[in-house]
Amino acid sequence: MFDESLDIEQMFVQHWVMNRTGVRPQFRRRRAVAVMVLAVLILPVARAAAGTGSDPGVERAASTHRYVVQPGDTLWGIAARTHDNPRYGVDEILQENAGIDPGELQPGQILLIPG
Q1: Residue 72 falls in which region: left (phi positive, over 0), alpha (psi -120 to 50) or beta
Q2: What is the value of pTM for the model shown?
């Protein structure tokens, strides 16, 4: 009665295997390119913000000058003449000239003054 050549179950069975379309490798490539572009754009900005774009020794040497202590000079007076805010100026002068005693400045003594 029924034709055995036509089987409903076999008619809808898939005999092929689906292969990957390559969407994931393309996504990975795009993500890698995006990360590299961001690194190229952000790295110089981060260096400029951190101040590591050049050698700190070169900047330090270019921004300091020498001051010869005169009779009656105090560290506060020197900082008031060379800096906008003497409080920070005293600290910067002390950091630049490690080992000096602010109470024992001698006339003719040379101090390095940060710019």
Answers
A1: left
A2: 0.46
